[in-house]
Amino acid sequence: MSLKKIIIHPDPRLKKVCDEVDGISPELRKLATDMLETMYDAPGIGLAAPQVGVMERLFVMDVAEKESAPEPRVLINPRLTWQSDEVNVHEEGCLSIPGIYEDVSRPSSVRMAFQNLDGVEIEEEFAGIAATCVQHELDHLNGKLFVDYLSGIKRRMITAKMKKLKKEQAREE
Predict the structure, then answer these.
(1) What is the CATH number of the domain that holds 107?
(2) Model confidence over 63-80: pLDDT tens digits?
């Protein structure tokens, strides 16, 4: 297992639509393990492959309560099959946009079809924070960030902050 470097916005890779995963391989299993370790270390509740520079349709998540045992999940080639008309507003953050949190409206429940690491096709319903998380991570696989839901002026301000952060990080390296 090894920690991956998380890509910081703005980066063109975060705006690209990812390719379907073509089969479960030992490399894919290692990537999923490394992504989970990276997500927990960050710390976060979700991490999509493009955030670590891999342009494939895969994300990991764990929305277990802090006091509960971890519930790591790996979702491969996820796609929404249903979404509720009811909407929830959650304060979202992103490991690629560190330190920034904004309210985003999304369907409160969704159904998603995906493969697990055994290649088994699963369809599952997610609600509450889990629904927000899977939609946020699926957006990453489609080249969309949570800041894309915000006003243009807020988005530009956040992008400017991230550019400044990236310059500071580059100086430290």
Answers:
(1) 3.90.45.10
(2) 999 889 999 999 999 999
- pTM of the full structure: 0.96
DSSP letters spanning 69-94: PP--EEEEEEEEEEE-S-EEEEEEEE
Question: Do the domain assignments include residue 158?
Answer: yes
> Does any domain span residue 47?
yes
Question: Which residues lie closer than 8 Å to 12 by C-beta, 6 or more apart?
Answer: none
Q: Which residues form the domain of 83?
A: 12-172
Following DSSP, what letter does each residue of 111-131 receive, concatenated?
Answer: EEEEE-TT--EEEEEEEHHHH
Within a domain: 5? no
Tell me if 4 is assigned to some domain.
no
Least confident of 52-56, 62-66, 77-81, 144-148: 62-66
Peptide bond before 72: cis, by omega within 30 degrees of 0? no
- In this predicted model, what pLDDT tens digit does every residue of 85-112 receive, in sequence order? 999 999 999 999 999 999 999 999 999 9
Residues forming the active site: 137
Q: What domain count does the chain have?
A: 1
Residue 125 β-bridge partners: 111
Q: Are 118 and 87 in contact (CB under 8 A)?
A: no
CA distance 112 to 136: 13
